[in-house]
């Protein structure tokens, strides 16, 4: 198998996914305002688009993972990328919000990129090398986050729809690239059952969570997702309120953190996990994450905030290590099924948590306690770390 081209394609895919998101997210308010011709309606439609995308991803991700076990990783990944490109193109040419909603729902239903990428990497990398591979995926994610808003801002000065055309072109070009360079990592197994029960996201997730070791790792993943989404949903608002920073400085802090995280995951995660092992590295990353979140809750000076941000970068070793550990706890013929269920857990958190956290953060501002949500995130991160620390490191569930 041509692993080098395959790994390159997967990293390019993750980078372009995040680059496309970074291109369009800063421009979305302007596009929706132009489409709806009403600022209030634009805000409501923005929230609806995000919720529908997350809901459809939750509903369909377990099925996509199952399909990748049954029919192979390659076709599922290429179809998912094609749907994403069509979604961005629809954003560029859509005459009204209902068209945007339709195609954004389609993109959510086809959002199997990370499910299949994680399963593919488990197929083609030895267990001891997976943490490094997942670290590289995290680095590609971070670099896309840095590059996207910058390029999107430049394109927006030409035309508000141009960033969406650029995102569509990049996604569809990547499909063509993958068609020629991406080999199949694992031939599909047509004996893998495909039933209504296995396609039901609640049933698929419940099956994973009921397994002794895998279930504990899944609950740890859920707690970590809640902590991560709490941080992501309120970070920029917290910086603006607590330190009175403008958008330029907030953007610089976000970009610096993402770039530092990408470099760390690309260069340091593999050696660290090789030395500590998946479990100890995951627990160490969890402890650092708890410290970063808890410290942020009480940060009142910029230097302390930057120090805690550096601790958070070091904590990213935990995510790659935990993902590697999860992949080792799963049989080769069910990697897609389990990764799909885990993506469903991620999607559920990404759909529900921002709404709840936004409400909680607004309440905390009225009570002069803006760091309260970060303290709550630290509690969930601590729960995740405790689950990891008390789970036996077995090769199979």
Give the tags.
single chain; 397 residues; 0% strand; mainly alpha; Growth Hormone, Chain: A; 83% helix
What is the strand and helix layout of this fold?
Elements: H1 3-24, H2 28-36, H3 39-71, H4 73-93, H5 97-109, H6 113-124, H7 130-156, H8 162-181, H9 196-199, H10 201-210, H11 212-243, H12 247-267, H13 269-276, H14 278-297, H15 302-315, H16 317-328, H17 335-366, H18 372-389
Helix pairs in contact: 1-6, 1-7, 1-8, 2-3, 3-4, 3-5, 3-10, 3-17, 4-5, 4-6, 4-8, 6-17, 7-12, 7-13, 7-16, 10-11, 10-17, 11-17, 11-18, 12-15, 13-14, 14-15, 14-16, 14-18
Characterize the structure shown.
By secondary structure, the chain is an all-alpha fold. It has a single domain (3-176, 199-389), classed as Up-down Bundle (Growth Hormone, Chain: A). Helices cover 83% and strands 0% of the residues. The protein contains 18 helices and no strands. The chain has helices spanning 3-24, 28-36, 39-71, 73-93, 97-109, 113-124, 130-156, 162-181, 196-199, 201-210, 212-243, 247-267, 269-276, 278-297, 302-315, 317-328, 335-366, 372-389. α1 (3-24) runs parallel beside α7 (130-156), α7 packs antiparallel against α13 and α14 packs antiparallel against α18. The longest helix has 33 residues, at 39-71.
């Amino acid at each position: 198998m041509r692993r080098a081209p395959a790994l390159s394609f997967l990293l390019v895919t993750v980078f372009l996914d995040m680059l496309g998101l970074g291109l369009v997210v800063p421009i979305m308010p302007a596009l929706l305002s132009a489409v709806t011709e009403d600022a209030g309606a634009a805000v409501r439609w923005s929230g609806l688009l995000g919720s529908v995308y997350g809901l459809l991803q939750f509903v369909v991700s377990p099925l996509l993972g199952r399909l990748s076990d049954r029919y192979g990783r390659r076709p599922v990944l290429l179809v998912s990328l094609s749907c994403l490109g069509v979604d961005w193109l629809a954003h560029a040419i859509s005459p009204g919000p209902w068209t945007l909603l339709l195609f954004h729902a389609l993109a959510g239903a086809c959002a199997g990129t990370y499910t299949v990428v994680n399963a593919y990497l488990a197929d083609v990398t030895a267990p001891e090398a997976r943490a490094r591979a997942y670290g590289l995926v995290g680095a590609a994610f971070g670099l896309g986050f840095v590059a996207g808003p910058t390029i999107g801002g430049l394109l927006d000065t030409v035309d508000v729809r141009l960033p969406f055309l650029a995102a569509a072109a990049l996604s569809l070009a990547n499909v063509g690239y993958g068609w020629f360079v991406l080999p199949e990592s694992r031939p599909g197994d047509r004996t893998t059952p495909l039933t209504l029960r296995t396609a039901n996201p609640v049933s698929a997730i419940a099956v994973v969570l009921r397994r002794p070791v895998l279930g504990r790792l899944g609950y740890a993943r859920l707690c970590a997702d809640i902590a991560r989404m709490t941080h992501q949903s309120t970070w920029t608002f917290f910086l603006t309120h607590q330190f009175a920073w403008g958008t330029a400085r907030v953007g610089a802090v976000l970009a610096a953190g993402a770039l530092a995280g990408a470099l760390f995951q690309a260069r340091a995660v593999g050696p660290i996990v090789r030395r500590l092992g998946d479990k100890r590295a995951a627990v160490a990353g969890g402890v650092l994450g708890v410290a970063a979140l808890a410290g942020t809750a009480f940060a009142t000076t910029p230097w302390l905030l930057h120090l805690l941000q550096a601790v958070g970068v070091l904590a990213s070793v935990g995510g790659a290590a935990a993902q590697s550990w999860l992949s080792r706890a799963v049989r080769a013929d069910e990697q897609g099924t389990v990764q799909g269920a885990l993506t469903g857990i991620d999607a559920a958190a990404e759909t529900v948590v921002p709404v709840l956290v936004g409400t909680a953060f607004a309440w905390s501002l009225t009570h002069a306690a803006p760091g309260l949500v970060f303290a709550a995130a630290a509690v969930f991160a601590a729960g995740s770390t405790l689950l990891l620390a008390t789970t036996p490191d077995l090769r199979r569930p």
